Amino acid sequence: MSAKKLLLPALLLMLLSCSGSKDGDSMYFNGKYIKRVMEQAAEWQIAHPKHKQYDWTNGAYYAGMFAAWETTGSQKIYDAMMAMARDSNQWLPGRRWYHADDHVIAQTYIDLYRTAKDKQAEMLRATIDTLNKFIAEPYPVRGIEVIKWWWCDALFMGPPTMAKLSRTTGDNRFLEYSDLYYKECYDLLYNREEHLFARDLNYVIKEDSTDRYEANGRRIFWSRGNGWVLGGLVRILKELPKDWSSRPFYEQLYREMCTRIVELQQEDGLWRASLLDPEAYPGGEVSGSGFFCYSLAWGVNEGLLDAETCRPAAKKAWISLNKCVNEEGRVGWVQPIGADPRKNFNADSWEVYGTGAFLLAGSEIIKMK
What we know:
mainly alpha; two-stranded antiparallel sheet; 2 strands; globular
């Protein structure tokens, strides 16, 4: 192994200890640079596949891949998406018709259908059939699984899929049921004081022996979990008609959460795995931070957020995210799969959804004035 690679983790730690924007950081906002680093990250991930292609991890990854293709026009990225959808998955969602994690990959199917010159019904047929069954059948009740979307991650996986399908097919039923299921999850998991989502009912304070707290006594709000929610809100709002009756609800929730997320950003530009106990989780976590950067940048670009507050936060995050990408294009500092904050990651930790979040962030940063 070269001395350069041996020194990389230490160099990244030193870079991440820096705060604020330096003169040399302007390169990170150059359009050519952004396209290049997005292509490099995408191509590294294409060369290092992981998980079943219909898995929720890849659903998040390919959401970023589609945004990267829109940004760069890379034929290699487009071909990789088509190989996943048509050849590997044959346009099928995951096997669990009732579970949002197995629906998220269909977001990319719908996006590919929209851009296809020759639109084939088979590209959407299985997704339509699956979501029709999802609406018609009750969720199998086991333990905490009492509603359709009972964990906050589901709000990235399910609602944007239904919103995209509704807009594409013209069938408003998908949006109407998505609104219903979303508000059930909101009522169960959203903390109106902190303006954050608990991961699931296990992390909602119920004033009994099952309650969980961080080491500093604060409630547990997971960075990536809330990143899923905010990223999902962006993807919902991009699909909703301007006059849709529930749009004000989503916009209000989006603004509330973005305001709180900006307050919780750390000095190095990233967010920690635990949002309310950052001192206990040293080192920025890239997947949650990537979704936050994406969400803040999109809101500034669309005029939905206060630019004076949110643009600097998005820019600061983008600078630090780039310092977590190694010379090969691998996105590091990603917490592995889990349901709550962990400390089990470092510069060499990567996951496909971390790459997806990075690509989504780049797709909006490049549009910022």
